[in-house]
Amino acid sequence: MNWLDALAELQQKGEPCVLVTIIEERGSTPRNAGSKMVVGRERLYDTIGGGHLEYKAQQIAREMLENRVRDTRLERFSLGASLGQCCGGATLLLFEPMGQPQAHIAVFGAGHVGRALVPLLASLPCKVRWIDSRESEFPAEIPRGVEKVVNDDVVEEVENMPAGSYFIVMTHNHQLDLELTTAILERGDFTYYGLIGSKSKRARFEHRLRERGFQPEVVQRMRCPMGIAEVKGKLPVEIAVSIAGEVIATYNAHFGERSGEKSQDGEKPVPMLLPASRRSRAN
Question: Are the C-beta atoms of residues 221 and 193 closer than 8 Å to each other?
Fold first, then answer.
């Protein structure tokens, strides 16, 4: 399968991959600039010339998939003794992650705010699971890319999320909110946890969580009230925009920063592909 067909098929399946492109060639190289290959979690599609160069490129791409990297990356390779290839030239590779969600998000509750929030999250580069015990509360049409989960025991769904997930709790029942909060804080491996409610609700929950043995530094990770404080309003869509904004602010906290790691030949990394206005701030 060529790289273009593979890319289309993987994107249709919702499987992340990395598109690797030769964007510069100097001297003798196995393939010309513009050659591409696609690296999936389990398979490699097309080729950039084979040999140790392709092996190293595949290794980098798989690491990017494993670490859920979304930023593009440039790496320069010398095709000499260091790579065991006799071409003797040099090549610059561009690594472009495709289909990698910024965040895995579990939204508990299909009430008014949930119905306003989920379409916003679905329009972001996020993978969303929408969870409620009440089938009737979900709209007739679920936004594309959102997984609807109906479970009589919604607390079970907490453990079904991957490490580093985002949890948003806005159910119809305060006791259920507390049980979900307990399960989420016990996991402890989340990136973000937001609970809908007021400052007085937070105070009551903090008291109950202390009674359950949670330390203050653990409880402090709970965002309640959640959302960006500057976004005022009580309409469901206003609350939803505030929460979505906080989610974006969280996953983009390090947007445009450079990793500082060295390239494969030990040289200083090639700058990330940023517009000049952002590149000056990142350096």
Answer: yes
